[in-house]
Structure formats: C-alpha cells, structure tokens
Design a protein that fits this description.
Number of helices: 12
Low-confidence stretches: 4-27
Largest sheet: none
Distance between the termini: 75 Å
Mean pLDDT: 89
Structural class: mainly alpha
Number of strands: 0
Order of helices and strands: HHHHHHHHHHHH
Helix content: over 70%
Length: 199
C-alpha cells in the first residue's frame, strides 16, 4: 500500500498537481493565507515570501508579486523592497527598473537599509532614473550609517573617485575601514592600500 501511495505521489509531483496537497500539509501556509485574505499586511508579505521561495507551496513568482503588492500598498517596507527586487529582476512581472526604483524609494524612505543601498545603486548606475551620483551618495550614506558594509564600501569608492561628493581620500579611507570592520574584504584591501599611500 505504501509503495502504491509513493508511486501516486511521484506521478502527481511530476505532473505538478500536488501543490494543493503541499499547501494542506503545511499549516503555516493555510494560516498565513487566511490572514492574508483578511487584509493583514504582515501575512500578505509572508505569503509573498512563501511563494517567492517555494516554502510550503510551489514556487510562483507571479503569486509572490501579487501578495507583495497587497502588503506594499499598505505601506509594508519589506514588501515594498521585495516588490522592487521582483521588478529589477523581472520575476513574476516584466522587468522594469523605473518601477523597481519607485518601490525601493518607498521602502528606503521608511529606513529599510537594503532598499537604501539598492536605491543608491540605481542612481549610481542610472537604472530606472537619470544617473545622479549625489543621490547615490545620499542613499549609500543612509545605509552606511546603519552599518551596511557594502554601502560603506561603495560610499568610500564615491569619495575616492569624487563622484557625487568632493574627492577626499581621507574620508574614503574611513568608510573603507568601517566596511572592513564589518567583514567586507574589499574594504580591508582598499583601506590597506590607502594606508600605504599615507592617507
């Protein structure tokens, strides 16, 4: 009997028909789904994560976007950030840098460090917005001041190259040092190089 059941499950899996069985077998999914349908932003965000990562349900980027959007429209910063990522990568939606910037900006304005960092990168690269190094520096600084190592490193690069801020190797070295203290190896390398040159 067990062998027959296993063969049936394998057949259902191969046909992609077992999503409902998985969902029923994971109580967290059902509870989250019910709360999300009642309009709770945190549950909608969590449901988006579950679909995005395939936790308790088959991975489905389109469903992830739908639930992230519901939470994002209620002001959930993590959902706004993740929706931005979906647009930036074209997962579950048509790739759209301008839309990614819009959602990153909303999350960044609420202080979400990853959104601030990503927004800085969009301005630095001119993706979805006109390239603006001063804006890149502003958003990198916000993330850097929260201890985000890669933002600290990028801010150091901006000061080193004089992009968006007056060139200042001493300030660049300080930011590289902070990135190094937070375990970012390139920050350590750049800090050592500037140290050797007397800054």
């Amino acid at each position: 009997m067990n062998k027959l059941l296993k063969k049936m499950m394998v057949a259902l899996l191969s046909l992609g028909l077992v999503q409902a069985v998985w969902a029923d077998a994971v109580p967290d999914f059902q509870e989250t789904l019910q709360a999300a349908k009642q309009g709770y932003a945190a549950a909608q965000y969590n449901l988006g994560l579950m679909y995005n990562q395939g936790q308790g349900v088959r991975q489905d980027y389109t469903q992830a976007v739908q639930w992230y959007r519901k939470a994002a429209e209620q002001g959930d910063a993590k959902a706004q950030y993740n929706l931005g990522v979906m647009y930036a990568k074209g997962r579950g939606v048509r790739q759209d840098d301008a839309e990614a910037v819009r959602w990153y900006w909303q999350a960044a304005a609420q202080g979400l460090v990853q959104a601030q960092y990503n927004l800085g990168g969009m301005y630095a690269d001119g993706r979805g917005v006109r390239q603006d190094y001063a804006q890149a520096v502003q958003w990198y600084r916000k993330a850097a001041e929260q201890g985000f190592a890669q933002a600290q490193f990028n801010l150091g690069v901006m000061y080193y190259n004089g992009q968006g801020a007056r060139q200042n190797h001493k300030i660049a070295k300080e930011w590289f040092g902070k990135a190094c203290d937070n375990g970012y190896q390139q920050g350590c390398d750049n800090y050592r190089k500037l140290n050797q040159t007397g800054y």
